[in-house]
Each structure stands twice: as structure tokens, then as C-alpha cells.
Amino acid sequence: MAGLLRSVAAALLLLSMTSLGFAANKVIIILDASGSMWAQIDGKPKLEIARESLRTVLQSVPADDEIGFMAYGHREKGSCEDIELIVPPQAGSASAISAVADSLKFLGKTPLTAAVKQAAEALRYTEDKATVVLITDGLETCEGDPCALGKELEASGVDFTADVVGFGLTADEGKQIACLADNTGGKYIQASDEKALQEALVETVAAPAPVPEPAPAPAPAPAPEPAKPEFNLLPILVLAEGGDPVTDGNAWEIYKAKSDGTRGDNVTTEYGAYKGSLEPGDYIIVARDGEAKTEQKLKIEAGQVYSPLFTLNAGTLIIHPRPSAGADVVDGAAVVVDYPGADNPATYYGTTKVVLPAGDEKVTVTIGQGVVSETIPLAAGKTVEKDMIAGVGHVVVNAYYVAGGDKADGSGIGFKVVKAKKKIDGTRQEVTYAYGPDSKFDLPPDDYVLITTVDLAVVEQPFTVKVGEFDDVKVAMNAGVLAITAPGASKIEIFEAKKDINGNRKSLGYAYDQKYQAAIAAGDYAVVSEKSDNSSKEGTVTVKAGERAELTVQ
């Protein structure tokens, strides 16, 4: 992660030196939160790369820019309606967007066309200038037509632009959504890896401001004026009184001061060791490093040079989140720091190095379901470095049709982890869940029960977790695959073959189709096919563990 932050910081420094501004007055960022974002690039999930890149780039956006945040596929699996404008466009929304992105679940479909349409409407694109930045790792899966939408928005909008970042798409896949950007005068950027995504976000979320018209040549002066100094502002920043100047990683925000002493228009934002020249007048200068900041009012007079000293009263905290003592740092571990004076706690991932206001820093590390919190005193000008141990074991789970047989690797695979000890009402506390083969869990030491579902087959299996240990849990489902064909059917339904005392059979699953295939526990079953004229046919079948059974009902 440190490499990611350095790369993005370097890109932002280069952009700031060319006087960057946001690409539009109001912008909505749309993030693909579909299940495919769990795929990995260079060993890291796409969703974590997107979160980290968003958080870093948003820190550079001026506070008065109005940014909104929308996501799709983060609440429901298989839904084309799962689109939500979570953070409406507003100034100072960077922290809120980062926090929301960190909390998203990635599990749904990709209704990108409908999402862009909703974002444009939220921005009132038919009345005002509007920009949408779409970050997607997949193509439209909800029958939308992004090319047609681009033409529609361009034709009816006042000044609408859609920028599209194709994250991990192939060149051929990119062509299918590039038209959305092309048809609105926007950019399509192919981002195949972590570095490319960083560069794409910088290019779309921060864009060069228009080059000003050259000022007219001044009228000849009757006499030469005295030479002005090259710079009239050379501010100095230190973490603590008497400390060395900070020249890297810090930022300077310079605002015009209003008559009432409050901040006016932003003049510039600079980084590192800053030397500049300001026109005579009243200013407010804000110095930042990490989560610490301080500001001063300064009156600039002609012919004078100013070197104000800014003291942050801050220190440096370095946290190494580990699952157990001596284990490697977990890059995806969440490190939440609630520092003195914070409006909202700051969230980082993996090894965290951050400048914080001096005082008691409340640090919480989360690795999977393991959570550890500690209050760490930090003195101004000092550095505190420490390991924080979440105390978890690592578990990888897979389902097999029979012990030693084929691994279940299709859709419909789910794993739910519950506490082994039952509550007083006989239920068990749910701990966490995951979908798909090779599901991974980081769990505190305890006895658990793994409830595994493969289509219609469900098995419970106990297991125990110890701190620092790895466990490969293999679940034998004692199941086979039942494939049913019912020509002309409108519905296929599977029942237990044995009737209960009332003569009823338990329904196990159904499909409104002429074909139905599902994993199911070994045993005897009755299958009923219904037609649109309410006629029905029935067949019986025996499913054996680890084998495929085929049945035609007609």
C-alpha cells in the first residue's frame, strides 16, 4: 500500500503544479460494487485497489468542490434495481465518500446504464453542467444500452460529460462501453492494473484548469519600479516547537480572507517546501500534514517578504496490523484512527503511517472478524511505532460433493459461520458469511459451525479456530447433481419422495423453465412438471452422492 500512496501522491503533486481544478462544478462518482470486484490483480482484490485509490485522490480535491457518490450491486445479489446515490453532491464530501466506499459489500449485478442515467438526473443535467465518472470492471448485465444512453444525454443535456474507467477490462470489452464516453465528449480510459487505475482516477477526478488568457502588456511606466523579490511568501512547517521543517507529504492551502476574517476564494494549493508570491492583501493560510492542520491569517504588503512559522503540535504514528504475533502484516486490515479533534475517524489499510494531532489516539484494527482496540498516547514531534495483533486464525473453506470427490465450484455456493454454542433460545449467533469456492475467513479463537449450502443441499460442520493457525476446511455435502428436462413445462418442482403423516410432500426447489439443474442431497425425489394449461406430469428419481442423475418428465 505504501507504494500505492507514493505513486498517487507523485501524480497529484505533478497535477497541482499545473494549477488543477475539478472537471465540473458538480460531479457524481459511480463505483461498480458487483461481485466481480472480488477478483484480484497482482494478489489484491480489485475492490480494495479501488477503495485505496479513491481515498487518496479525494484528499487532493478542494473543499468547495461538490462531489457525490453512487454505487450499484452493493446490497442485493441478482438485482438490476440495486442502484443508490449514497452521498449527494456536496462540498467537503471526500471523507464521507471514502468511509462509504470502505463499508460497501460487493455482490450484485452491473446495471451501469441505469446508474449513469440516475446520476445525470440527480445532477439536473438538462439544466446545469454535469459530469459523471464511472468506474467499472464489467459490462452491462441488465439489458441497458450505454451507447444509446450517451447519445440521449448528449442531446438533451446542457453540458453533460461521462468519463468511463474500464478497470481490468480487455480491449474488446472496453469498446462496448467506450461509446458512452465518446458520445458525451468524455474520456474512456483502460486501467489494467493498480498503477493504471491510479492514473485514470487522477485524470478523471482532477483535470487541468483552463489556461488563462495572457494579460495585456502594461502601459510603459514613466520610471522603472524597484525590483520585486522573487518570492514574498516562504512559510515553514514543523510538527513541534524546535523541530525540523516538514518538506514532504504536507500541503499548503491559501485562501483570500473576507472582511469578516473568514475564508474566501481558494488562491492555490501547494505541496512540500513551498515558495510563492502573493499579491498584496489579506489571506488565510492552512498548513496540513496527514490528519493534523493549523492555520494563520497573514497580511501581505508590497515589497515585504514573509516567513511565517506553522506548528502542528503533532506526532507520527506507525501501525503494523497483524493477525497473530510474528505473522506478516495484512494489507487488507482496516486501521481506524480516532484522533483528537476528529469529526470522523480516519480509516487506513495495511501498514499505516500517519501524522496526527498530539494526544490520545484511539486505534482500532480489524482483520476479518477479529477486532483489537488500543489508546496510544502520542507526543508532539515524536514517532510511535507498534504492532497491533487482531488475534485471529485463518480458515479456507470448500464444498465437495463427497469426501475425496469433485469440488463444488459453480454458482449457488454459500458458507455461513455461526457460534457453536447455542443461545438460551436454542439459536446460534451468526458471525459472518461468504460465497463461492475457496472462501476465506479470519476468525477469533472459538468453536464454530459452518453451514454450507450448494444449491438445494445444506450441511452443517463444526470446526475450531486457534490464533495464528491455518485451517483448510473441506465439507462433504453427500450430494449429487440432478438435471431435469420437462418439454413444454412452465414450472418444474422437486419434492421429497416420502410423504409426511398428513400425506404431504416437502417442496425443496422449483424453476419456471423447461430445464432445471441443481445440487441436492443424496436420496429419493419426486419431480412434478406443470404446463400453462394446469396439466402436470410426475416422475421419480434417485440421486447418489458424487454422481449426476438425469430425469425427463413429459
Structural features, described:
- This protein has 554 residues and is of the alpha+beta class.
- It has 7 helices and 37 strands.
- The strands form 11 sheets. The protein has a 6-stranded mixed sheet with strand order 6-5-2-7-8-9, sandwiched between helices. Strands 13-12-14-15 form a 4-stranded antiparallel sheet, with no helix packed on it. The chain has a 4-stranded antiparallel sheet with strand order 19-18-21-22.
- Helix 2 packs antiparallel against helix 3.
- The radius of gyration is 30 Å and the shape is flat.
- Mean pLDDT is 89; it is low at 1-24 and 208-212.
Beta fraction: 35-45%
Secondary-structure class? alpha+beta
Shape category: flat
Which segments are poorly predicted (pLDDT under 50) over 5 or more consecutive residues? 1-24, 208-212
Main sheet makeup:
6 strands, mixed
Q: What is the count of helical runs?
A: 7
What is the terminal separation in angstroms?
59 Å
Give average pLDDT, whole number: 89
What is the radius of gyration computed over CA atoms, rounded to a whole number of angstroms? Answer: 30 Å
Tell me the number of strands.
Answer: 37
- Percent range of helical residues: 10-25%
The spatial strand order of the largest sheet comes to: 6-5-2-7-8-9
Domain VWFA: 26-205
Signal peptide: 1-23
Keywords: Signal
Protein name: VWA domain-containing protein
